[in-house]
Each structure stands twice: as structure tokens, then as C-alpha cells.
Amino acid sequence: YITISIDAIIVYIYYTEVIEKTDILTGLLNRRSYESHIRNLREASEILFFDVDEFKEINDTYGHSVGDLCLERVGHAILRSYGNKGNCYRIGGDEFCVILNRNLDSVTMLNHAFAERMNKEREKDKRIPYVSVGHAFFDPEKNDIESAVNEADKQMYYWKQKRKSERNHIRQKHSS
User: Which of 43, 126, 159, 176 has a C-alpha 20 to 30 A away from that of 142?
Assistant: First the structure.
């Protein structure tokens, strides 16, 4: 009975730890896990940030259940595209991160695969949004993690603003 009790305690501890580090909606690792990983990162990695475009409008137009569906689909596409090359996180409402620690030179190919998965999701459901992605290389011998995180974030916002400007330009053309 002692062995069974000890096994049960170990399983409970493991299960509790997994639950505490997992985002319920997407199944990805959560912000707590992300912050722990970033704080302890000591190997060369590619840091990717993702932000769902016009997410507030999705919630306002279709409701939070559709917003949740969008987040689930984005999370699934991230996991399928990057999951076997690194760790995938949901770090905020509509913000995601991937820390690649394998096949770092394949980030362009992986980003393309992610974009294709999202295009297929939009073919099935027009409410599925675009996702802006930025990335930066972290090398502990050449730069600090904060610089890499800031660069990835800055690049992601560049693409987000660029796509927003393009959408506004198209809307203005159609309204004239």
C-alpha cells in the first residue's frame, strides 16, 4: 500500500504541475511556463512572437465563443507548425510565443508552414483572422534575452501595423 500511495502522490504532483503550466483553452504552455523558460534560457534559440490581427473586432462582431475558437485554431496551428522544434506558449489574450531550440535555420520554412495552415483554416471559416509573426535570434554569447525578445516583439508589431495599413487602404478604396 505504501508503494501505491507514493505512486499516487507522484502522479498527483505531476498532474498538478502540468495543469499549472498549461493554457486550458489552447493546450499550449502558459505564461508562467514561458517566463520560467525565458529566465533560464542558456542556449541559442529563435524567439517568435505571434499576435492575432483584429482580435477585438472578432469578439465584438461574433462573440467570445468565436474568439475562443479562433484562439484554439491559432494555438493548434502553432503547435503543429513549431511543436517538434521547440516550446509553444500562449502568453496573453491573443498573444503567443515559440522558443525554437532545434533546427534554428528553418524558421522561414516553419513560418511558411504556419501561414499555410492558417490559410486552410480561413478557407474553412472566413472568421479566422490573420496572425502577425516576428522573430529574433538569441545567442547567449552575443546578446541578452531581453534584446532578442524586444526585437521579436518589434518585428511582430511592424507586420501587424503593415497589414492594418493595407486593410485600411483597401477599405478606403471600397468606400469611395
Answer: 159
Cβ pair 50, 68 in contact under 8 A: no
Considering the entire predicted model, what is its pTM? 0.85
- Alpha carbon dihedral 170, 126, 120, 159, in 10-degree steps, equals 40
> Measuring CA to CA, which residue among 123, 146, 127, 121 is closest to residue 136?
146
Q: Is 94 a catalytic residue?
A: yes
Catalytic residue among 7, 23, 68, 94: 94
Tell me the pLDDT tens digit for each residue of 42-97. 999 999 999 999 999 999 999 999 999 999 999 999 999 999 999 999 999 999 99
Q: Among residues 162, 164, 160, 151, which one has the least CA distance to residue 48?
A: 151
- Residue type (1 letter), 27: G
110 DSSP β-pair partners? none
Residue 83 has φ and ψ, to the nearest 5°, of -55, -35
